[in-house]
Task: inverse folding
């Protein structure tokens, strides 16, 4: 999926536009599941074209006083990683030095740039906004993110640069190895591939600059997707947090299963969660590998168990997934991670025959039926698994809009209790019948 990155100074209105793009619905859903840092990444659809949106402002806390250098850094990363750059400026403050600096970087980029002059709320501001033509971007649009005026034209221009890429037919599982800088991603991949590291580049229409390596040993075969280390030679960004999430997004997009490597000495941090939620939103299989377990000293009988419980809490509500403690350094349990990955891949492709699914779910719904809504009886007639690349179920019922989240969770838990979907997010829809 193509990535549209919104860049610009603090306070110009990036997150207001971002929220508009990803839609009210998504933010409500996220609130329910306790996602707080959802400002970074979302999916949008315009004119039938789907794309991912990244709000670069979501990566800086207190962005009011963020260093200018950090913003320039983000712009450079966005240029490298995104498909289209949406550069936002603010008519109410007028053109600033930092705008000029950002524009300078963008003009040299070989990526399409769309300039959005925001807060053009009225006629006076419309006149003032003309000064931004001096930045020299052919595609310049005037909008008001709060009222929404002008956003349609802007998006039309943005999606001109977006391709609707079909998911390529895959013959073997694609596995993305992601995690924070220094978690041990390269060490893990090197341990798997050793000398035989066979880098496959340029798979038609899929790769740009992530590295694909083919693993085929001990009757296990998959493609490893690794974006680690690409930039090491070129430039080490100060803004590592933004950079590593950005490159994780790319790898996740191309994968079926994501192996999230976490440094045991740090525990699960905000950034690990950000990457985890992106994989979850994209319905990818997930395996968590807690690495550097050798560095955790004085281990007792319950150390791993207690640690695992804490990790599961962090990932809630989606925590039906394999968590494996490994040490790449001491070659401990690396193959366990591989096996879990293969299992999760299988779970993600699992198809439950309709009759079996209905037998199990009818029984579950008899044990605990959907609560009435304002005296209306809710009845779910049957359920089918949808023909998608990931597990998704449609429940046909009389009042689809009145089934509450706790009942939805009940249904999901029942599916998980009866069928093996460990490591895989499940989508549940209610449809009118
Ligand atoms: N008048 C007006 N105000 C706007 C418009 N869009 C956003 N704002 C306001 O501008 C302020 C900053 O908006 P944000 O969306 O938080 O800006 P941001 O660029 O994401 O800021 P950072 O989080 O600092 O990066 C908020 O008070 C918005 O309500 C607009 O079109 N017109
Ligand atoms: N003690 C210990 N050190 C490890 C382990 N795995 C990796 N390391 C060390 O951690 C450091 C970082 O490992 P890398 O594999 O380069 O980490 P990375 O995630 O690829 O890092 P970036 O490319 O910066 O994103 C190296 O010094 C490794 O030797 C482990 O299991 N135990």
Result:
């Amino acid at each position: 999926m193509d990535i549209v990155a919104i860049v610009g100074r603090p306070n110009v209105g990036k997150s207001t536009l971002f929220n508009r793009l990803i839609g009210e619905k998504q933010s409500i859903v996220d609130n329910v599941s306790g996602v707080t840092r959802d400002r970074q990444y979302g999916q949008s659809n315009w004119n039938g074209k789907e794309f991912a949106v990244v709000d670069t402002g979501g990566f800086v806390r207190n962005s009011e006083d963020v260093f200018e250098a950090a913003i320039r850094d983000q712009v450079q990363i966005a240029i490298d990683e995104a498909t289209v750059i949406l550069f936002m400026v603010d008519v109410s403050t007028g053109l600033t030095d930092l705008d000029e600096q950002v524009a300078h970087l963008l003009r040299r980029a070989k990526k399409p740039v769309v300039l959005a002059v925001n807060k053009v709320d009225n006629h006076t501001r419309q006149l003032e906004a003309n000064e931004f033509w001096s930045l020299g971007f052919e595609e310049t649009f005037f909008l008001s993110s709060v009222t929404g005026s002008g956003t349609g034209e802007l998006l039309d221009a943005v999606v001109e640069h977006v391709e609707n890429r079909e998911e390529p037919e895959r013959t073997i599982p694609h596995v993305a190895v992601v995690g924070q800088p220094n978690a041990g991603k390269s060490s893990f991949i090197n341990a798997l591939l050793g000398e035989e590291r066979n880098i496959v580049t340029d798979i038609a229409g899929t790769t740009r600059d992530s590295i694909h390596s083919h693993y085929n040993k001990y009757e296990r075969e998959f493609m490893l997707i690794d974006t680690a280390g690409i930039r090491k030679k070129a430039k080490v960004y100060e803004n590592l947090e933004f950079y590593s999430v950005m490159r994780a997004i790319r790898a996740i997009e191309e994968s079926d299963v994501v192996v999230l490597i976490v440094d045991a000495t740090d525990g699960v941090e905000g950034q690990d969660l950000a990457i985890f939620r992106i994989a979850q939103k994209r319905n990818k299989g997930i395996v968590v590998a807690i690495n550097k377990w050798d560095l955790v000293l004085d281990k007792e009988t319950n150390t791993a168990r207690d640690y695992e419980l804490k990790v599961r809490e962090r990932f809630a509500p989606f925590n039906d997934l394999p968590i494996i403690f490994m040490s790449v350094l001491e070659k401990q349990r690396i193959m366990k991670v591989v096996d879990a990955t293969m299992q999760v891949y299988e779970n993600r492709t699992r198809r439950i025959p309709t009759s079996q699914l209905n037998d199990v779910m009818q029984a579950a719904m008899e044990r605990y039926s959907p609560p009435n809504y304002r005296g209306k009886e809710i009845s779910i007639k049957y359920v089918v698994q949808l023909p998608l690349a990931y597990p998704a179920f449609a429940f046909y019922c009389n009042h689809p809009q009145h089934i509450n989240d706790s009942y939805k969770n009940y249904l999901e838990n029942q599916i998980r209790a009866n069928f093996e979907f460990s490591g895989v997010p499940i989508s549940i829809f209610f449809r009118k019948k």
User: Anything to note?
Assistant: The domain at 3-159 is CATH 3.40.50.300 (Rossmann fold).
